[in-house]
Amino acid sequence: NAGVMQNPRHLVRRRGQEARLRCSPMKGHSHVYWYRQLPEEGLKFMVYLQKENIIDESGMPKERFSAEFPKEGPSILRIQQVVRGDSAAYFCASSPEMRGPGETQYFGPGTRLLVL
Amino acid sequence: GDSVTQMEGPVTLSEEAFLTINCTYTATGYPSLFWYVQYPGEGLQLLLKATKADDKGSNKGFEATYRKETTSFHLEKGSVQVSDSAVYFCALNSGGSNYKLTFGKGTLLTVNP
User: Fold this and answer.
1) Most buried one in A72, A86, A90, B70, CB count within 10 A?
2) B33 with B21: CB under 8 angstroms?
3) How far apart are CA A21 and CA A6, in angstroms?
4) Are A56 and B51 inside 8 Å of each other by CB?
5) Which residues are CB-neighbours of A49 under 8 A, at least 6 positions away?
6) Number of Cβ within a 10 Å radius of residue B54
7) Cα(B107)–Cα(B22) distance, rounded to whole angstroms?
8) What is the pLDDT of residues B17-40, one digit of tens each?
9) Rounded distance, CA A24 to CA A37, Å?
């Protein structure tokens, strides 16, 4: 049973370019979370999605960032016009039906974005 | 809002030493508590969890007890190995509308032979 997959693992962009990060959840999981890890910081929640729905995007910057989880295919986190402050590790997590706060979220290996 | 405070690192120990990493939290309601481990260059792996007061989570020789009275979830291991070298994150989930995890800043553990 494959785990959560993310690609690319490393991404280098110049300021002003777009970054697209992909996440394929574990088989049978319909809930996806995106978190951002800044250097020497813990992970911070960005957005919570279910298939075709954004449930909560309260942790995501209002400008330049967007996320989707289409009916078919991976979840995408898109960052337009990247700036140096966007350099971070972006982690995706997935879970089956969230029956309560004790449900485990399973993390992917992350995408490390470097903005030059 | 929810928050997690964990022991600042780095922590350096010799093999077979006793490990404690302190974690305290602030949350509304009755959160579930987690310890995740991150090995260099990898994602986070669940180490253990506890979903209600006085529960003890355990895995691979690590354990932590959910203490509601002290709002703590300290991680312990009786005898660490070199392979335990990693960053350890304490986290909570209060539920609510989004079930997001709130993380501490992480504690880097280095175990020397």
Assistant:
1) A90
2) no
3) 7
4) no
5) A31, A32, A33, A34, A55, A67, A68, A69, A75
6) 10
7) 9
8) 999 999 999 998 889 999 999 998
9) 19
Percent share of chain B, pLDDT over 90? 83
CB atoms within 10 A of CB A78: 13
Helix (H, G, I), strand (E, B) or coil at B83: helix
Average pLDDT, chain B: 93
Nearest to A21 by CA among A85, A87, A73, A67: A67
* Local structure of A116: helix, strand or coil: coil
**Secondary structure of residue B13 in the 3-state scheme:** strand
What DSSP designation does A86 have? G
Burial of A68 (0-12, 13-18, 19+ CB in 10 A): middle
- Structure-block tokens of residue B75: 């991680």
Q: Which residues sit opposite A93 in a β-bridge?
A: A33, A107
User: What residue type is assigned to position A22 of the chain?
Assistant: R
Give me B17's structure tokens.
Answer: 């030493």
B32/A45 touch (CB, cutoff 8 Å), yes or no: no
Show contacts of B54-57: CB within 8 Å, 24+ apart. Answer: B57/B33
CB contact under 8 A, B99 and A98: yes
Residue numbers in A near B34 (CB within 8 A): 104
The string of pLDDT tens digits covering residues A83-107 is 999 999 999 999 987 777 788 899 9
DSSP per residue over B88-106, as a string? EEEEEE--TTT---EE---
User: What pLDDT, in 10s, does the model give residues A5-60?
Assistant: 999 999 999 999 999 999 999 998 999 999 999 887 789 999 999 988 999 999 99
